[in-house]
Design brief:
Blueprint: E1 2-5, E2 11-14, H1 21-25, E3 28-31, E4 37-39, E5 45-47, H2 69-84, H3 86-96, E6 106-109, H4 118-129, E7 135-140, H5 143-149, E8 158-163, E9 179-183, H6 186-191, E10 195-196, H7 203-206, E11 211-215, H8 220-226, H9 231-256
Parallel strand pairs: 3-6, 6-7, 7-8, 8-9, 9-11, 10-11
Antiparallel strand pairs: 1-2, 4-5
């Protein structure tokens, strides 16, 4: 939470946490970063989602309102704060979460963006432990990072759901570990025995079944690109192509030597 002066000269409070239309409906607040590779103000590029796979080409957070100039600027400000000044980010976020509006509420960490580094994830874990009256959840494709830093000793007020479509999908036990897959429609996810989370995004971490199905956003060109596949099936197909390519390269190397 920071302060700035408005046109009247009064000090206005800028909150770090916001609410998009879907999350506002269920009383959830969210923290947002840019998605995937972003151009920074100095002209450099930064990958906010290091483990993104096929999801990067089908991401709702790279189209529509997320591309509005003011929205992109706000998300980049968030990234600059937590990446370049993590101590100040931790201070501001921890302070903001003491406000009564957040008592008993859920915070979705990243409706866009990801835990891009160990330091950043550890910062969030400290924030969560410092805010026991608030509950937190997220989707993540950072499977190995979570297993190293979170899984063995998670904050008691934090739940997460692995998300398919990333480069570490193969690390997830799809039969037992909670995960989400994006389907072309509700009928497809029901047919695959996944739980539909359309009613509430919180079902991603609160549903009885660990198999969470998300109907794809109704964005025509992304729906066309996805076809009848899921993010998970598209990623498996990509992984198989990469394995076959590496195998052929290995065979050529062996024959040449």
């Amino acid at each position: 939470m920071s302060e700035s002066s408005n046109a009247t000269g009064r000090t206005a409070t800028k909150r770090l946490l916001t609410q998009n239309s879907d999350l506002r409906r269920i009383g959830v607040f969210n923290w947002t970063l840019p998605a995937f590779v972003i151009e920074m103000p100095d002209g450099s590029h930064f990958n906010v989602c290091p483990q993104a796979g096929v999801c990067a080409q089908l991401c709702y957070a790279r189209v529509g309102t997320y591309r509005f100039k003011n929205v992109r600027a706000a998300h980049i400000r968030n990234l600059l704060l937590c990446r370049d000044n993590p101590e100040e980010f931790e201070r501001q976020m921890t302070e903001e979460l003491t406000h009564k509006r957040y008592v008993g509420k859920w915070i979705r960490v990243h409706d866009s963006g990801e835990f891009f580094s160990d330091e950043y994830l550890l910062t969030w874990l400290r924030i969560m432990r410092s805010s026991p009256g608030v509950r937190f959840y997220c989707y993540t494709k950072e499977i190995s990072r979570f297993r190293r830093l979170v899984a063995n000793d998670p904050p008691g007020n934090f739940l997460w759901c692995y998300s398919l479509g990333g480069k570490e999908d193969h690390l997830i036990d799809l039969s037992t570990e909670r995960h989400a897959d994006v389907f072309p429609n509700v009928e497809a996810l029901i047919a695959a025995d996944y739980t539909d989370q359309t009613e509430s995004d919180l079902l991603s971490v609160l549903s009885e079944s660990p198999l969470v199905g998300i109907p794809a956003n109704r964005i025509p060109h992304l729906l066309k690109k996805q076809g009848q596949e899921t993010f998970g099936s598209l990623q498996r197909a990509r992984d198989e192509k990469l394995r076959a390519k590496k195998a052929r390269a290995g065979q050529k190397f062996a024959l040449a030597h």
